[in-house]
Amino acid sequence: MPTVSRKIERLINLTIALLATKRYLTKSEIFRSVDGYEGSAEAKERMFERDKDDLRNLGVVIEVGSFDPVFEDEAGYRIKPEGYSLDLGEITGVQIALLSLAAQAWRGAALDDAAHSALTKLRSIGVESDLDGVPAITPRLNAAHRDFVVITTAISKRQRISFTYLGASLERQSRIIEPFAIATKNSHWYVAGNDTEKSQIRTFRLDRIDGEITSMPVSGGYEIPEGFDVFESLSNLQSATVATLDIRKGKAQLLRNTALSIVDKGEWDQITVKYFDSQTLIDLVLWHGEDVLVKAPIELRKDVITKLHEIVLLHA
Q1: Are the beta carbons of 183 and 190 closer than 8 angstroms?
Q2: Where are the alpha helices (DSSP H) in 74-218?
Q3: In this predicted model, what pLDDT tens digit does every residue of 265-291 receive, in sequence order?
Q4: Domain-by-domain residue ranges, the chain?
Q5: Which CATH architecture has domain 148-235?
Q6: At the N or C end, where does the chain have fewer CB atoms within 10 A?
Q7: Which ranges of 63-185 does DSSP label H, i.e. alpha helix?
């Protein structure tokens, strides 16, 4: 499909040129600097109009203006970095996995030789461009977990993955799963798939995986159930609990950022926060030391006190 590939290349180079320019670009400047605009003047006009429509349909905002409107100069075009966005809407976990792989493949591709040629040509006709602003367009799907790429690659290749998992009681468990999807909920990443030992679809939180994840080929691969929805699996996870905390004025900003409510109590503020995993919240409370006091629920308060006693004994 050479025609499609050629158009995609032209769209990429047009986007880079409009993002990198420090002023509006006229059509004549675009046609001279962006590869792919060929043929008669009318043909170039039609191609450009279609390209603008395609970019706008992708959510890319193209501004129309002039660098000297007083003299009614020819209309020009540019894309502000803040106007460059893609509305993906609701996507499935499998699509997230595929997008992450696509992002890896595209990363850096936006600044290949063809893309650089557009900026070089712009400079040759006296148009300044900002190379530092261009990398912002490179597609990225960031994840904090180090093995994110291993999991998404395994999903796309239908490979099994094995890892050591810390259970609810922090016991170490060996797991082998056929991953179906990866998704995020409440600031945590999860992988869902068929647990080969239990022959059940299970969901695992990535920050509870201890050590490295290993992928392994499966003869004949495996099938992801038709209609599988990773977000439905995540909706069945434990619901949130609300905690009440007293925090010293000007302290514990991490907790303040997640507060549902804040009440001024003089030297202290009282906040409420939602939490889905008590151990994560306990660790955060202990990190802030004497600047945070747990008021409720009472079970959480007792767990924090128990953990403090353990710390004292370890350092006695």
Answers
A1: yes
A2: 93-106, 113-124, 148-157
A3: 999 999 998 877 787 788 889 888 899
A4: 2-90+106-131, 148-235, 241-314
A5: Roll (2.30)
A6: C
A7: 93-106, 113-124, 148-157
